[in-house]
Write a structure and sequence with these properties.
The chain is an alpha/beta fold and 398 residues long. The chain has a domain at 1-39. The chain has helices spanning 23-39, 57-74, 76-79, 93-97, 115-119, 151-161, 174-181, 194-214, 225-229, 233-237, 242-257, 289-292, 339-349, 376-397, and strands at 47-51, 83-87, 120-130, 133-146, 168-172, 219-223, 264-268, 299-303, 323-329, 358-362. The radius of gyration is 23 Å and the shape is globular. Mean pLDDT is 85; it is low at 50-59 and 86-91.
Length: 398
Amino acid sequence: MIEKHFTLSNKLPGPDHKFALEPKELKLMVSKIRDVEKKIDLARTLFIVSSKSGSTLEPNIFKEYFFEQVQKVVGAENAGSRFVAITDPKSQMQEVAGIDIISDGEWRRKSYVGIIADICYGFQVSIREVDGERQTWHIVTGELKPKDPGLLAREARFLKSVTDRPVKVAMPSPYVLGERMWHPRLSIEAYPAKRDFTEALVPVLREELVALRDEGVEFAQIDDPHLCLFVDPQVRSSYADPEGEISYCVDMLNRMVEGLDGIKVALHLCRRNKGRSGWSGEGGYGPIMPALQRLNLDMVMLEFAMPAAGDKAILGELPRHMDIGLGCVDCRSAHIDTPGEIVARVKEALEYVAPERLVLHPDCGFAPGSAADIPLDEAYLKLCNEAAAARLLRDEYG
């Protein structure tokens, strides 16, 4: 990223005009930059995209520009492996905010579901239209074969090297991958049925969990927004057997963690995260509660800062052995919840569950996609207030 002052004339009044570039000089600079770009061997270059505290726009613009160029050379499926995104370890934004369990924000990933195409062969990249925008989308077209197993653990290795706090790594569920990546026409030669693909994912994702455990990661978060969408009557009506789908999703999750110890595993549920545009899916958690009661995971993480989440009384129906992640911070709008607003939400939940079972967190991630434009300062302030609310609650409840 190159920053340089520009002016129409060095003779204009003011301190900056004297050393700024005039139009002819700017044209020459752009020409020289293009000459340098032509000399870069894109197929052999590793791009490191970094950001300190402040806006995320500069690294995103940098990444997107060069990502497009690299795609033309090595293909969209392989382009992601040429980029490493890091935050400044000295800034340690989450630690400064007061967060107890640290994540890396998935900056190394172009997509939270697309990470599976970095771990396994068997996918091709397609283009689809979403809200008028063209997005890359992975579709399974071949048998899953190892490509870069243990990738999530290697992501975690860097994170653990810059913090002494417990760390958490997120990964997609087999069910949501099946819903997103199996195509009825393009996938059937490799996997005739969607469930064939979903079940083939279970051992792959389990091995990633084992590798995370062996790397010393304390928490794994399995993301499945599609399971949560079954709270919505319209979504349920689009399936011939919605109860069977819900039950199948939970069965796959239980198979992933069967016999696994040494790492705490949570299921994160959300009604899709569309950033400033809101969410998909309306309704409380009642329709999926029987399935959640069968989960053999350590924690379930639920959205409750959003108005569509329903009554917190439903928390009392979760098994007592299970901890509860309480979404109590709005992650979608520009509104920054105060510590008092967050405390009020938590106290509503405490009418139904013991305080030692609760873990506070935002409803979902602050960047619901690689193209998200959420100011980093906004996320930082929201995390600061979440931590402040936790301190107030600890003082009151011990």
